[in-house]
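cron nightly-structures :: item 1 of 1
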Amino acid sequence: MYSPRGNFSTGAVLLVCVVTVGLGAVLTACPPTGAKPCDTDADCPDGRCRFGACGPICEEDGDCGDRQVCQNGACVSAPECAQNADCASGFECREGRCACTGDDACALNQACVDGHCQTRARCTSDASCPPGQRCEVTQGLCIPPCAFATDCAPGLDPRLATALYQCTQGTCFRRCINDVSCGAAGLICSDGLCTAAQCHTRADCPAGQYCTSATFGRCAAFQPCTSTSECGPNFECRAFDPQSCPPGFDCTQSICQELPRCLVDDDCRAALPLPGDPGGVDRVAYCAEGHCQPSKACAAREDCPTGMDCVAKVCVPGGCRGHVDCANGQACVEGVCRSAPAAIDVAGARLTPLVSHVPVGGSVQLHFVAWTLDGASFPSAQASFSVVGDDGQPSTAASVDATGRVTGVSAGKVTIRAVILGSAVLPISATVYVHAPPATGRKVVVIDAATREPLAGTLVRGCDGPMSAGPCTAPVEVMTDAVGEAAFPAFSKGDGSSAATFTVAAADRRPDGLPQYERVSFVDVRSGTVLVPLGANPVRAAAGFNGTVSFTQVHSDGAYWVGFGTLSAGDPSEADLRSLLGETFWVDLPGLPQKAPVPGSVVLYTSPGLGIPSEVKGRSLGLGQPGRRTVTAFAGRTSIEALMSVRSTDFLAWVGAMDYTLLPFNAIVSRAEVPDTVDVDNDGLCSNAAQCPQGPERVPDYFNFTPLTFTPHKAQRLRTEVVLPDLPPEYDTAVVAVVSVDSEAGVAPLGFVSRAAGPPDANNLRPVDPVVMRSGAPHGGVEMGQPGVWVMGVQAASLTQAGGGVGGRILRGNALPTRAVVAPLLPSANGSTVTPGTRTFAPAQPQWNTLVSEGGELARVDLFGADVRHRIYFEAQGSQTLVSLPEAPTGAPGNDPVAEAGARLEVTVIDLLPGVTSQDAFDLGGADLSAPATLIDGYSRWQGQ
């Protein structure tokens, strides 16, 4: 029978069901008699469309979803249980549901009510908890008394629980860094621990106090005033702004209010202007004593009060910034112009450099510094100088004037003695070697780069003629004599018209069997007397110090102690974050569940809420370059926000808030690496298989490094605005240091700051904002150097990862400027290669042409082999496509890095100071490479893989 859709009769539907049953198919979903006809489920509001008529939602459990059953034609939740055994501990089966039997069955923040676990109201104090329980206010939980921090959060990893909580007299307290970190209104951070706010309005506080906030209130005493002179240090007299008026307080009156807190000057830009203050929107400040000190805007020093400088348009504490700022007869020491002490008050003295080499007719300036009994230093011009020979008798091989300038007269070794007449200090001395020019041909003088003493018995291989003419077909090999000289009389005369190449290698070996010294080549030298400083072999070796930092005299406050030391860099082009701050150590930082990477020179202590320092990392294990070096140490107490930044270059941004100290004249020695027997860096690698199943490693010989003790106690009072250049794209961070540049110590940092660069712009350069940095004033003998600013472009990741590169500029002058504008950094030689088979170096183009066009003059290729480093200098030229690499002398110890396929390559290009040429760097009579810090204007160093 045909019927239009939607007009089936009920009888027809039943007939279908009957017929179907007759066929043997058992159907239980037939619609009831009188059911509403339908096409889809949408036509059945309370059921399902079955065989053209609305029927029940379900007929069996399979018609329902997971965890449901079919009951009376409807899908309902399946019972939780059928018996008590189906329920968790503390629950019983009631009418198919697991019901709690008591509060212990529920979560800590719940109670059992009529068999249901219901969230409790948050507790605010112990009084709102059941007997025998304590309130942990940040969670609002009533919990049993604790014995350990792990009891405060039993579900957390014990290390994280200990980092987050503190158990004090049975009560759990959440650690914090500020009020916001406690997580809720009505809670405040007090002594590093979260606790309930003390008040909500002034009525909650005793007389003479007000409530600082309605949400994070503290009862604070206040002192009415009419002028700031009535207030204590770091407070000022002012009224509250109406928008910040404390609850219930009469804000028409002025009271002594604490100045905004800060670490560095940048913090004060956000903190000021202070609303309601007469200074208004023009108000400026600088950071001192941990507070933003109100100051005056300026355009020049003349706009500021006496004794203040104008830096970044703000009047800041001043002082002399170089000897030229002082009157005749005075010197700038620790930022103050001082007169020379009386001879009778002098208690000690030093002379620098200790060892020098000059040609006949050449000269070197010696510097004499004196100390008084109170430890104050002075670069004295009062010393009396004399020249003596090896026999102790007066010598005519050199002359010395009243200022300490020594001039070579004839070949020989002389001793320069200096004494302050009338003082009890014994004469001090320095050694000067005078070298005669070669009668014919060329001469090579080889010295130890660290001590500057001559190296006798060293192998020198010479090739007459330019390397560009092809491989050396007639090499000449000579051994140096007692004063480090090797003569090549048959070579062309070194008058600038012809070239020769020299390679030096010493036969000495370290206790581990590797060469003691590196190999050094000077390619296409045109001078007659060549000075070659031979450095310690850095392969599987390092130099540094093992220091302790005392915090007893620091002026800052905070629950965390942070300090570090760093060595001056004899050759700044070799320095990077690793050499300035040390290898990566892995330590457990408070608040972090896992170990964090921290530079080896950093020392950490913590004591949140206790005041007694607890060691996190107790030794300052720093790296650096061998030689007579200055150590600068910084230390301070701070907050956990600053503490967390020690994992990155960010922590340099607040070094200006630390105190500092200077330790000059330290002998730093290179030593072979040793097996790590105790996992000194906590990286899981050491020779103790039980302690370090991952395997062994070799590390610097930290425990035999020069031992030092630092007690930073002087505030960094000088300020300098540094206008940074846009960085080449390979660098993402600028590191800036105020420095003292000295011919012996090198570049000694007096203060640090770092600044992250922005993303590359349309010119593929990364812009960097200017920075105002604080630095210490030189003293203790460091004031003999030249003031300057050292800027490095680095990859921030290079603090904890090897590789990458670094670029730098060094500004210097007679005084530290208040504003330093830094020239663009050189790009890197990224992509340069060495071909061992042909012994050639291929500079990457077009980068190389750009390097030369932007000032690169002296090139250095370093090849680190399995046994030794070969260092090769040559003049950088834009037309270079291939540079031949010389061979070492016969019998040179160690495998040849140039011939090793796996040797690591570094390429450095140096921009020399104006007036200095690459040939001067090779020449004994020029600005030679025995003091590279004094001739470098800028550089870039690319580190290959």
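cron nightly-structures :: done
The mean pLDDT is 89.
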